[in-house]
Amino acid sequence: MSTLKVNNVQSITPYPPYILDSSGKEVGKLATAWVSFHSDGTIHNSFNVISITASSTNQYVLSFTPGLRINNPAVAGSSNASGNIVHPVIYALNEVNRNQQYVFSSHLEVRFVHGVGTVEAQENSTYHTITVIGDNAYGSAGSLMPQG
Amino acid sequence: MSTINLGVLKSTTANPPTMQSQNGIDRGKFCRAWVSFGRRLGDVNQYEVLSQFNTLAVEDTGVGTYTITFQNALPSNRCAFAGAATMMNEIIAVVINAGNGETPPITTTTVNIRTCKANVQNFDAQYISLFAYGDQ
Questions:
Q1: Which pLDDT belongs to residue A120?
Q2: Which residues contact A30 (CB under 8 A, 6 or more apart)?
Q3: Is A17:B7 a contact under the CB 8 Å cutoff?
Q4: What average pLDDT score do residues B9-19 get?
Q5: Which residues form the domain of B127?
Q6: Residue A30: closest C-alpha in chain B
Q7: A148–B58: do the CB atoms touch at under 8 Å?
Q8: Which residues contact B136 (CB under 8 A, 6 or more apart)?
Q9: A31/chain B closest Cα distance in angstroms
Q10: With 90 as the cut, is the pLDDT of residue A85 above it?
Q11: Domain count, chain B
Q12: Which residues of A touch B71 (CB under 8 A)?
């Protein structure tokens, strides 16, 4: 066991340092950004989210710290609700076509949608959370399978 | 204030290093895998991985159902998963694809997920993302 005691770990590149195991395999990634906020847009706590702007009913633009340079990040979140569920949805201009998601290196647009399906029929949630994990590099093409 | 500058932080074990406060309390964990995948450019009837860490493949196993395969095994078959998907007007959720009382469809190398919109209808979203946290 070895312990390094420092206040900051600063990368020598524009990106976070690589986290490797003892064999040199990359085994971890840091969260790129996260935020908890009120439905009025007030930020409770955050990391790399500099502002939240309501763009529609229960729909928000989360602006990131400039220069994150992330591509197609993973997003997840949750919300409070006393009745029907409320769940965060990545806003898309179209439900089928490619590249309609509002996920960018500079910002992300999410909706917190009521369980019965319509944006307007929202619960009066007061605590929304979103976490974003991204990387500067595109992944491999992966496996391309016929859509079921 | 002390700062160490580096490009690589290497653990002495098979797991990422533990990030602790000054009194030795664990304060942070690293994400072990994440992926974003979406409808393929030029053929929206297929999916492709858009970006990822430690994800080998995404298999489309049916309407709104997918198997995520990890490149290197996760440290446990009981990792925490969270995700989100795109939708224009309705609710859509990313869930672990198992019914109540069923064994979670999770191994150290795969997880089966489902994207469903209100109320229980499986749906092929155009952009889906997931990340995994876990420890031994």
A1: 54
A2: A16, A19, A133, B30, B31
A3: yes
A4: 91
A5: 32-133
A6: B30
A7: no
A8: B15, B75, B76
A9: 7
A10: no
A11: 1
A12: none
Do A90 and A102 contact (CB within 8 A), yes or no? Answer: yes
B48 pLDDT higher than 50: yes
Give me the residue from B50, B89, B126 closest to A119, CB to CB.
B89
How high is the ipTM of this complex? 0.91
Q: What is the CATH number of the domain that holds B47?
A: 2.60.40
Contact residues on chain B for A13, CB-CB shorter than 8 A: 7
Best of B12, B69, B89 to disrupt the A interface by mutation (most A CBs within 10 Å)? Answer: B89
**B77 falls within a domain:** yes
pLDDT of residue A140: 39
The Cα of A95 is separated from the nearest Cα of chain B by a number of Å equal to 6
Confirm whether B111 is domain-assigned. yes
**Residue B18 domain flag:** no
**Positive/negative CA dihedral, B57, B61, B66, B72:** negative
pLDDT tens string A87-131: 899 999 888 888 889 998 899 999 998 876 555 555 678 899 999
Q: Is there a contact between A148 and B119 if contact means CB atoms under 8 Å apart?
A: no
Contact call for B35 and A74, based on CB within 8 A: yes
**Residue at B16 is within a domain:** no
- Report the distance separating Cα A71 and Cα A139, nearest Å: 9
